[in-house]
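Researcher: Structure for this, please.
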Amino acid sequence: MGGRQAYIEAVESLRTAAKRPSEDAARAVVDRAVGLLAGRTRCRLTDAHRHLLRMSAEQCRDLADVAAGVISLLDVPEHRSDGAALLVPPYSSPTPGPSPASDPSLAPGSSPAAGLVRRPEAWQPLVQAVLDAMPGQHALLIPVRDHAGRLADLEFAATSPEATAADGRHGRSLIGTRISSHFPQTLVSGRWLVYERVLDTGEPAEIGPFEHAGNRYSVRAYRLGPGLLVTWEQHGHRPVESDRIAATERLGNLGWGEWNLVSGEVRWSEQLYRIYERDPALGPLAREESEALALAEDLPLRMAAAEAFQRGEQVDVTTRVRVNGRIKHLRSVVDAVRDASGGPLRIFGIVQDVTARETSVQRLAEVEHQLAEQRRSLAAEHELASRLQQIILPIPDGAVALPGLKVAVRYLPAEQEGMVGGDWFHAAALRDGSVLLAVGDVAGHGTQAATTMAQLRHSLRALTVTTHDPGVLLGHLNRLTCDLDEETPETAATAIVACFDPARRRLTWAQAGHPPPLLCRGGRTAPLQRPAGPMLGVVEDAEYGCAVLDLQVGDVLLCYTDGLVEHRGRGLDDGLAAVIRTVDEAVAAAPRQPLAELLSRLRRANPDDDTCILAVRPITGETQDLRHFLGATKPRRP
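Model: Predicted structure, token format:
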């Protein structure tokens, strides 16, 4: 019952507040979609936003609607290949000094110095991507702890290209190695105590300057997630022009190469070695080695580029290579110094690693394909639900005459695809000459909502055999909805049920969490005071009170679902006020046929929700024109 009570309170608070998204909220939806799209496809925010704009233009849909579709598709936990959800944020703070029982990085039976590091988290590649573009010496170090939870070592998890160890290893070649292998003296120095304190407290620290291997260094340490981000600087070292060029290459993730065809000499820049993940001591790749790395599927592309080069053209081509088991997309811009006959003497070129960009394009295309599949699925469900709704809920073409009443119905579908709802009505004469009227709204959209709507509507018709009391009828529908909720959780609905006695023109009505009917009398419209009654399906054994209204000739009563007054970009009070003005104007403009005029003016659909409108007015055999009754109480409006 606690969950049901919380649910009804939440729904009721939403109904009373009725805060529809404003322009700021729409922008927030777009921003969230951009962030999700960029995060899942590993592309830049600008690329993700540009992709959303393109999809919106191509599909002729509002940008916020496209963004909402992206959010519904991507706003789920991402999973690793082993099935564990990646929910650890990159900047979460670990508990200092984990115990062996709680720390998955410790293996039973391992020695203190041989403890296993934590399993790499999904955010570490993002840190590596950032460090790849940063000048200077930086490294992310993951703590290795002993069985007592003490810091035993630090392992390189991500490094900047300039990060260099004492033995000359640098950049990504350090990843997987430990501080104890390169800087064993650090473990017994005061710096180690500082590292422990930063990991335990999260407070950053600066160390130095201090002497190391004949040079002076300063170190800054920060806690980053469960690890330590360390930056070190060598004093007295001034960058030369070659350092600036190397930094530029790293920022662009590109390197240069040169092949002197006369001498046979081949030269590569340091960044080109990094792109191919090759040890500079081995020298540049031979032509056979380079061709062995290329993917066979790109052979036609490479042949076309070679033919263009032979014609003396500059070549700009992107092909794929397999480096250490991973596919890289490399853009090569190649030109040559040629002799008088056009033959190449020296070939030079730039190679840029555009893997991230190409991968982002592919992932964006995959997301777009998934969204298209989702839209097709929603469209199919929309069509099925619409057909089901039309079969179950046929809408009369015009006003229907019932004992003592004239009734008109209008159904306004939502503008958005897949938003077919569970709005319904019922208007029929009973065997004793009275008239049963009802309007209801099932929570949710789609086939399930349409199915629940059918069950409630047909149950109401069947229950009139046993009673005509609106409060009792709603009590039966509530128990039915509670039973349906056990099969399909979060099933809930609102409704108004009324019974009209034509002999006395008396309307007895009850409601279950539904918006109040509007009564137009004497040309002025106001909402009726609702009797007590909670939503259907949220409180078991709920009781529903009844109210009595004596209708007068000339009155117009409007029952509706919440889509009529709730609308994106305006509050509930504004929506209700707009409907009241419309009723007043319609009755004044067409006193002979107020129902037709009223429904015609309320024709505009709500883009967010379906709407069902039931309008009634009492009639006799002699009074079909309301002008006399309007004029008796209020001058006719121009």
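Researcher: Any notable elements?
Model: The mean pLDDT is 77. The domain at 254-353 is CATH 3.30.450.20 (Beta-Lactamase).
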